[in-house]
């Protein structure tokens, strides 16, 4: 299929502040997770797409040091408006306005990235697929 910037959204799925200690390691450096995501977000803005930062809630029993959301967002180097959503679980759609936000923006082509592919990113991808 063809990507249409008017229908495109980048979902940046990051672990919640309780689980984000590894996100902060080297934050802002070009080869860090946040540095790479910032480059991708910049490219998304350049083509007219939107960026949605999704903060997930970690599973019980995993509660490392906190990294303030504002620090993470600043490290992404976002140059345009980003929507920020917090989910009620590792799935970005769970108990959050993500689905309604994407539909209101007319965005049905998604690019997903973030940290912890096996949890938040993958769970969000499966839910997006289930929702069409």
Fold and architecture overview:
With 132 residues, the protein is α/β, with parallel strands linked by helices. It has five helices and four strands; from the N terminus they run E-H-H-E-H-E-H-E-H. The protein has helices at 21-24, 33-47, 69-76, 98-104, 117-131, and strands spanning 8-15, 50-56, 82-86, 109-114. The chain has a four-stranded parallel sheet with strand order 3-2-1-4, sandwiched between helices. Strand 2 (50-56), helix 3 and strand 3 (82-86) form a beta-alpha-beta unit. The longest helix has 15 residues, at 33-47. It is globular, with a radius of gyration of 14 Å. The model is unreliable at 20-24 (pLDDT under 50).
Oligomer: single chain
Low-pLDDT stretches: 20-24
Question: What's the helical proportion of residues?
Answer: 25-40%
Biggest β-sheet strands, sense, barrel: 4 strands, parallel
How are the strands of the largest sheet arranged?
3-2-1-4
Order of helices and strands: EHHEHEHEH
Gyration radius, in Å: 14 Å
Form type: globular
Distance between the termini: 15 Å
- Strand segment count: 4
Structural class: alpha/beta
What order do the helices and strands come in, and which of them pair?
Layout: E1 8-15, H1 21-24, H2 33-47, E2 50-56, H3 69-76, E3 82-86, H4 98-104, E4 109-114, H5 117-131
Parallel strand pairs: 1-2, 1-4, 2-3
Quick structural overview:
This protein is of the alpha/beta class. It has helices at residues 21-24, 33-47, 69-76, 98-104, 117-131; strands at residues 8-15, 50-56, 82-86, 109-114.
């Amino acid at each position: 299929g063809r990507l249409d910037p008017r229908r495109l959204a980048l979902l940046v799925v990051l672990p919640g502040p309780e689980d984000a200690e590894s996100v902060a390691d080297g934050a802002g450096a070009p080869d860090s997770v946040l540095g790479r995501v910032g480059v991708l977000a910049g490219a998304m803005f350049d083509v007219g797409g939107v960026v949605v930062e999704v903060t997930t809630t970690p599973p019980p029993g995993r509660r490392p040091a906190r990294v303030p959301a504002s620090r993470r967002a600043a490290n992404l180097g976002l140059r345009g408006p980003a929507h920020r959503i917090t989910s009620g679980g590792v799935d970005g759609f769970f108990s959050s306005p993500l689905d309604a936000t994407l539909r209101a923006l007319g965005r049905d082509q998604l690019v997903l990235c973030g940290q912890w592919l096996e949890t938040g990113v993958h769970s969000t991808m499966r839910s997006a697929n289930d929702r069409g």
